[in-house]
Amino acid sequence: MNTTMSSRVQRALLRAAIWAVPLFLVLPFLGIVSASFSRSGALAFPPSDWTLHWYQSIPDPYFDALRYSLSLGAWTTALVTVLGVPLSLALVRGRLPGSSIINTLCIAPLGVPTIVIAVAGFKFSMWVADSWGYSLNGNSAGIVLMQSVFTLPLLVRSVIAAFAHYDNTLDEAAQNLGATPWQVFWRVTVPLIVPGVIAGMLFAFVLSFDDVVVAWFMGDPGTPTLPVKLFTAMEVEFDNAITALSTLIVAAWAVLLLLLNRFFQLERVLVRD
Q1: What per-residue confidence (pLDDT) applies to 273?
Q2: Is the overall model pTM greater than 0.70, yes or no?
Q3: Range of the domain at 44
């Protein structure tokens, strides 16, 4: 009897812990969403009265900063994709001399604090300016280059993970049917690793869009990214226009994730059996 009761208690505690984790992750977003509809302007949950006032009063500079952040995220994602996908394929299928060292170097930036990357990028920009007369500080190129340093490893690891359960017999079967190596690559390999590439691009874009430290060090104070602008605004004055904009971003991001997961089955890469 005591054993049965103890087993029931353990199962109940396990279920409570399982539910507690997603609730812990979701509750902050629920607070932001509810506050964006609160007329009082306070972070109230649930709001006593509902309004769309804060959505209508989002200042235009926030949308300018949003467009700038989206542009930087797109350029950073494009750069790391062009560099990371061939590098991943070379590490998995190539016979590069010193591939283990290259693999380690690709992981190394993940263990370096972003502030260190930002300071190193700032010093590197000063050296480039002194040597060639071109400054990477205060322009988009410097931000994109430095953000690529800590986003490239995630894309590389994601593409490599896509090969974890890759069945090489599919390539052999295609070759036996008369396909050339180029046809095997484009018609067999690429479609199978697309979820890994998309997942890596997703990680790269999120980190670039969310970055504050590198954008603060390398960017132009006159044209801040959205995270920098929000961080600065919250230091001076906080109103629910910020929560309204945050709610719009969360909603757009949720729709994008659902669409990507629907058409590319990202769980095949993000969740492994």
Answers
A1: 44
A2: yes
A3: 1-51
